[in-house]
Each structure stands twice: as structure tokens, then as C-alpha cells.
Design brief:
single chain, about 180 residues, alpha+beta, two-stranded antiparallel sheet, 2 strands, about 50% helix
Length: about 180
């Protein structure tokens, strides 16, 4: 006879089923949806009623879970990339707008008004977003668009730069070893 838990339900171990088989495997489609919606793995574990550490073990142990997460995250990432590209380049879209129409007419010398609301489609244009363009270019062309440019400084004949204090420079110039420095004025 199977063992009973405190609540009177059958124990999972007595049936030979792991928590993965009962809590995770039947919900792979739902897990994919959560990942595609941008939930973190920690949030997904909580939704499943499984500890995050256990969820990480399951991800390493069961290829079906790992593949479902990778597939869904790839879809979400692609959607964000497409949205970023659209914002960087600008796009046209259609929007529904409610317009109030008023009809004025005269009947038997009296002014009458009729009003109604009509929904119409309006074409709009979203101008390119400079911030999205900068982000895109810094990531796609980092050599040309990064904020910091590296400059290499070399000394005589490509050798190392000789650093000396102002006093040493004046002494060398006085001894005739170096050209006298210009006055710092």
C-alpha cells in the first residue's frame, strides 16, 4: 500500500515520480510562454512551486527544459531586436481615433443638432529614435562608435616616451643635451 503524507495524499516517491515529472514536465508549454514573456528563471521556478536551486538542477539535468527555455528566450530576444531596429529607423503605423461628428440642421425655423462618434483609422509616423540608433551602432560597430577612442603615444623612433620633470628638462637644456623648453606662459 502506498505511503500517505500528512495531508492524506499519496507520496510522490511511492509512485516513482520526481518533482520534475509532476511539477515541471507537464507545464513545459507554459514555461516557454513565461520565458517568452520575459520572466526570469527565478520567477518561473516560483510559478512552478519549485525552489530556484532545484530549477537550476533540472535545467542542467533535463534537456527538454533547457531547450524550451533557450527557444523561448531566443524568440523574445528577436522580438526586442526587431522593436529596437524599428525605433532606430522609424516606421509608419495605423491608429484608430474616435472623432465626434456634429450635424446642424434647421427644421421649422428651429436649430437642431445631432452628434455621433465615429472611429476612423489615421496613419501616423514614428520618427527615428536617436538613442536607439546610438545603442544599435555602439553594439554593431563598436570600433567606429564607442565613446572612448584609444590613442597610442610613442617616443623617439617609436620607442618609449621619456618622462622627466620640468626641473630635469631645464637642467638638460642648460647642459646642452636638450633644446630649451618654451616658457609656460
Amino acid at each position: 500500500m502506498p505511503k500517505k503524507s500528512r495531508k492524506g495524499q499519496k507520496s510522490q516517491k511511492s509512485e516513482g515520480r520526481s518533482k520534475y515529472q509532476t511539477y515541471v514536465l507537464p507545464r513545459l508549454v507554459e514555461i516557454e510562454g513565461w520565458a517568452r514573456d520575459g520572466l526570469t528563471e527565478e520567477q518561473i521556478a516560483k510559478n512552478l512551486g519549485v525552489a530556484y536551486s532545484t530549477f537550476r538542477v533540472y535545467k542542467d539535468k533535463y534537456p527538454a527544459l533547457s531547450a524550451a527555455l533557450k527557444r523561448s528566450k531566443a524568440i523574445a530576444d528577436r522580438e526586442v531586436e526587431n522593436a529596437l531596429f524599428k525605433n532606430a529607423t522609424g516606421y509608419e503605423y495605423t491608429e484608430e481615433q474616435a472623432i465626434k461628428l456634429k450635424k446642424v440642421f434647421y427644421l421649422d425655423g428651429k436649430r437642431h443638432e445631432e452628434e455621433r462618434v465615429e472611429v476612423v483609422e489615421v496613419k501616423r509616423y514614428r520618427f527615428p529614435d536617436t538613442t536607439a540608433q546610438i545603442f544599435w551602432l555602439k553594439n554593431r560597430k563598436p570600433k567606429e562608435w564607442r565613446d572612448r577612442k584609444e590613442t597610442e603615444v610613442t617616443g623617439k623612433d617609436g620607442g618609449p616616451v621619456e618622462l622627466m620633470s620640468w626641473v630635469d628638462l631645464v637642467v638638460k637644456a642648460h647642459e646642452g643635451e636638450a633644446d630649451p623648453p618654451e616658457s609656460p606662459a
